Amino acid sequence: MDESATIGAGTRVWHLAQIREDATLGTNCVIGRGAYVGPAVRIGDNVKLQNHALVYEPAVLEDGVFIGPAAVLTNDMYPRAITPDGTLKRDRDWHAQGVTVRRGAAVGARSVVVAGVTIGRWALIAAGAVVHRDVPDHALMAGVPARRIKWVGRAGIPLEPSGPAEWRCPETGERYTEHADTLTLTPTEEPTREPARQATE
Predict the structure, then answer these.
(1) Based on the number of CB atoms within 10 Å of its own CB, is 154 exposed (0-12), middle (13-18) or buried (19 or more)?
(2) Residue 106: inside a domain, yes or no?
(3) What are the Cα distances from residue 113, in Å, to 97, 133, 194?
(4) Residues 127-141: pLDDT tens digits?
């Protein structure tokens, strides 16, 4: 681990993990064996990076993100080892584009996320998928290239239809509304509470 990296309280970094310069990790994270966190990568709180996951700069992982074993978040759209004149490429010869993974999303084992992609909140990327374009909130993506096959709720469970453009989580009971290929959590009304009665003598 580089001395300039910032590690939050309660974060655990396992054997052979590499945390590069100026990386920032939040609180209560788990960085698995052999994982790689690139320079200046920003990781929020309660993030899990499983064994041998590779997160290249300048990626941003928001709170509660899960990155599965051997998943790769790339940063170069047009990779080359050398320039056209045959010399080895240096930092100044290319522009890194990081992946952004929004709150609560999960990236499955051995999946690949292409440079510059944003994965929406609570989305789920299936194992082995190749994600080459932005992913909407709550989308379950699978395949090569990845496409949306279902919607998932905050619990990560596929949602069940409950009406026209309406979905329900079988685990939590949360309800969602679909509009223009996006899914949003339906607000719930808080129960009306009676004002507390004052005790009388």
Answers:
(1) middle
(2) yes
(3) 12, 9, 51
(4) 999 999 999 999 999
Q: Does an H or E element contain 161, and which?
A: strand 160-163
Residues 113 and 177 in one domain: no
Which range marks the domain in which residue 77 is found? 6-152
Residue 142 lies in a domain: yes
Per residue in 15-43, pLDDT tens?
A: 999 999 999 999 999 999 999 999 999 99
DSSP classification of residue 160: E
- 88 and 137 housed in the same domain: yes
pLDDT at position 187 is 86
- pLDDT for 2 equals 82
DSSP string, 50-68: -TT-EE-TT-EE-TT-EE-
